Amino acid sequence: MKLIVGLGNPGQKYERNRHNVGFLAVDRIADEYGFTPFRKRFRGLVSEGRIGSERALILKPQTYMNESGQSVGEAARFLKIPEEDVVVFYDEIDLAPGKLKAKAGGGNAGHNGLRSISSHLGNDYIRVRIGVGHPGRKDLVSSYVLHDFAKADYDWLDPLLTSITKAAPSLVEGDIPRFTAEVARDLGALDETSPRAAGKTQPTKTPRAKPAAGHPAGERIAKAKNALAENLKKWMAKRDTNEGA
């Protein structure tokens, strides 16, 4: 069994915060793969189901972000799920909005949710970092992540969550490189079909220049036009003669 964790803060007040993008990701996965309704367990909300051939438990800790490890550690110990079978989705301010990275193990990079999980579980779980961007100043980080996504953010957020969901089977199978490649490929395909959404512009076709008068090609075109005009004059003169006969 895999334990799939989304990080965030409980309650409607925080529902659409950037800090809650982990909740948004696992909610999308639960909906897509027909998981059971969420219920209270392990100091969080849990939902069970299958992704491909793998059984999985989705967990949304309800202990607030900085105590997430209490919920994750309790669930992992009770279900006897090893660290390497735990996947954690969370917000990453050091990644540009819409970017994603995943890896097994590593540091916590100042993220309170990861720091708490590592203290209760260990450090070898899989981390899926969802970029939300940086406000530009360190003293603004807290208010930035605890603020709702802007309306414009959904132009990149919705496609990213959809691509993550499509690629989830590779993630639960433990193939992290394939998972990230599938997300990137799916987002790339969406970009190609929607240039404006991707911030791209359609290539401008450069009109083909007409050959200059002194150019050989220009001389050939001029001669052809003159010959056509002469033939047209002869045909009209012949027609007038026939009509007058």
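The record above closes out task 2.4. Task 2.5 opens with a second protein, given below.
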Amino acid sequence: MGCLVAIDYGEKRTGIAHTDSLQLIASGLTTLPSIESIEFLQQYLLHNDVEAIIIGQPRQKDGTFSSIEKQILKFISTLKKKLPNVRIIRHDERFTSKLASQVIMDSGLKKRRRRNKSIIDKISATIILQSYLELKSYQK
């Protein structure tokens, strides 16, 4: 069984998280400029067995898609061309940025470190992945 990779795609930055090979624990991997994310994933897949990539699906409170969804679909299209053998799964990411901000507040990080948006993106990707793992185990 390979690991899972989760992506919190943003206009500027993309947060990436992954699981262990048993798919039990989600942990933050990195945050990088969105333009570099496909190249990073290509390199990551060269060295790691990845079962699927989970990509956050941003929705508003009323269930409609967020404005960034068009960019995410374009990203997914490019990703499928570059990595045709990897399964891509979409997962609802509502409120992950708010949850990530709360996690950071609760962690006791100093105010200066809390302003670092790359931390939020990596934690958001981790929350997306953990949420997916919980849903997957619930459906069994």
